[in-house]
Amino acid sequence: MKQKIIFATGNKDKMREIRMILADLDVEILSMKEAGIVLNIEENGTTFEENAVIKAKAVAKHTDAIVLADDSGLEIDYLNKEPGVYSARYMGEDTSYTIKNQNLIDRLEGVPKEQRTARFVCAIAAVLPDQEVIVKRGTIEGYIGYEPAGENGFGYDPIFYVDEYNCSTAQLPADKKNELSHRGKALRAMKEALRGKCL
Ligand code: IMP
Fold first, then answer.
1. Residue 145 beta carbon below 6 angstroms from any ligand 1 atom
2. Most CB contacts within 10 A, which of 79, 159, 176, 185?
């Protein structure tokens, strides 16, 4: 029987990227929902790492499988790293990203490009069957554009631009975004750590 990894997220967009990035592992990857685990986890940590560990440990209580969880977000330097760990909750969970993205662009009105620097951050936590905890972090540097662009990706992708490609991460094809992204980098580091341990 294939080994199982349960990914502690209810976010379908993240799950799609995660499945692509972990596709080369010979394991079954299940979302929390697919594993039949229904939990409302309070993300009350103050760092991405703390929140990832909180989520992974909460799910690990309900399974013997390897559990992974990520916590990610956007840090805008000019806004003192807002929205940061509150990225999903910024302006309310139910507010559309069209509105959130426009709000962030408006808050940077008149700010020159060199002060619009930002990064996506992703912390991934694993809880192994022996309860060992591993944490990895990945980042991608970019800047907040002057208008949203692109249909790919999700969340803040339309306003997050990368200099190397001179476009937003919502304009990159999925495989290119995964190659460059915070989530891609953190998950590949996690894959290497797991290969040496339990895979
Ligand atoms: P989490 O589920 O608490 O980790 O929320 C992460 C939030 O950060 C998401 O809901 C998005 O708003 C934002 N975010 C994280 N990664 C990305 C990404 O790759 N693109 C765009 N937005 C992202």
1. no
2. 159
Q: What is the pLDDT of residues 56-79, one digit of tens each?
A: 999 999 999 999 999 999 999 999
pLDDT tens string 7-17: 999 889 889 99
72 Cβ closer than 6 Å to some ligand 1 atom? yes
Task: With beta carbons less than 8 A apart as the criterion, state whether 150 and 134 touch.
Answer: no
Residue 1 clears pLDDT 90, i.e. is over it: no
DSSP class of residue 123 equals E
C-alpha separations of 4 from 22, 48, 194 in Å: 12, 24, 12
Q: Cα(137)–Cα(23) distance, rounded to whole angstroms?
A: 20
Annotated catalytic residue 71: yes
- Structural domain for 84, as ranges: 3-197
Q: How many domains does the chain have?
A: 1
Site to probe by mutation for ligand 1, drawn from 51, 87, 168 as the one with most ligand atoms within 8 Å of Cβ, is: 87
**If you take atom 23 of ligand 1, which residue's CA is the nearest one?**
155
